[in-house]
Design a protein that fits this description.
The protein is of the alpha/beta class. It has a single domain, classed as 3-Layer(aba) Sandwich (Arginase, Chain A). It is about 40% helix and about 15% strand. The protein is built from nine helices and nine strands. A hairpin with a 2-residue loop joins strand 6 and strand 7. Helix 7 packs parallel to helix 8.
Length: about 300
């Protein structure tokens, strides 16, 4: 698969500044410049060293390359980048994240093509940073463990044709069938409301059973079903324009297998073989999904 890799590039200050404030960008440059060892960034729980700014620029630029490739080909792409990004807010980095790669890719798409972008976030943790910059054509939908870091992710809101949709899941775990069923329903409802011109998926695989940082008890095979549902939504709504951007996932075997499944499912352009059984969704989550229905009514 890596034989088909596209070269990444660095994101420019202008591209980063569509999401992050100039003051924050200058803080990152100042605090990382001249470091001779690791330390914490002053804005939050992010360990940085002298290479961190360069690596974060390349990760954000790689996400931009991915969305542009999806636009050009009408096929799904996957940005294999680190550090992750979805915790990085406009004014601060936190949770391993310096720059919000998915949001930067979404804003880059809008700057070049206009229109609306939906960020789909299935990471174990809530993407507080992406939610922080939602609006102005950027919508956000997330499932995440609750209670869990960073302690955000309860909002439901419509902002004109944009939306913020959060569906907290029990931190104790959820059945694989229920996890997939939640996403099949969410994608149907949110995509119908937002009508996105492109989709960016914050692809975090720390929901997989055994992950040392997350773990919702979900089988590693769920990635195939997620990709089929997301790709089908992208084909129906926006000509297949979807870019996956790596977020969490800290068990290397589960991470590798999950990424492979996303790529193979995207190659096959396969739609869901069958809808997952919504009866497997926990009652408290079904109640939340009913509130989502009310939001769009």
């Amino acid at each position: 698969m890596l034989d088909r890799a596209l070269p990444a590039r660095d994101a420019s200050d202008e591209e980063i500044a569509r999401v992050h404030t100039p003051r924050y960008l200058e803080l990152v440059k100042r605090e990382i410049g001249g470091l001779d060892g690791p330390r914490y960034l002053s804005t939050g729980d992010v360990v940085v060293d002298a290479s961190s700014l360069a690596v974060a620029r390349r990760a954000a630029g790689g996400a931009i390359v991915a969305i542009e490739a999806a636009v050009e080909t009408g096929e799904a792409t996957f940005a294999l980048v680190r550090p992750p990004g979805h915790h990085a807010e406009s004014r601060r980095g936190m949770g391993f994240c310096l720059f919000n790669n998915a949001a930067i890719a979404a804003r880059a798409y809008q700057a070049r093509h206009g229109g609306r972008v939906l960020v789909v976030d299935f990471d174990y943790h809530h993407g507080n940073g992406t939610q922080d910059v939602a609006g102005e054509g950027l919508s956000y939908v997330s499932t995440h463990a609750s209670p869990a870091y960073p302690g955000t992710g309860s909002e439901l809101a419509t902002l004109g044709r944009d939306a913020i949709v959060n569906v907290p899941l029990p931190a104790s775990g959820i059945a694989t069938e229920g996890f997939v069923a939640v996403w099949e329903r969410l994608l149907r409802d949110v995509v119908a409301y937002v009508r996105p011109d492109a989709i960016v998926a914050s692809a975090g695989f720390d929901y997989v059973a055994g992950d040392p940082v997350g773990d919702l008890g979900v089988d590693v095979g769920a990635a195939t079903a997620l990709a089929r549902a997301i790709n089908e939504a992208a084909f129906d709504a926006c000509g297949g324009r979807v870019a996956y951007v790596l977020e969490g996932g800290y068990d290397i075997d589960a991470l590798t297998a999950s990424v492979e499944q996303i790529v193979r499912a995207s190659d096959a352009r396969a739609s869901a073989e069958r809808a997952a059984d919504e009866a497997a969704i926990p009652r408290v989550v079904r109640e939340r999904l009913a509130r989502v229905d009310d939001l769009f009514a």
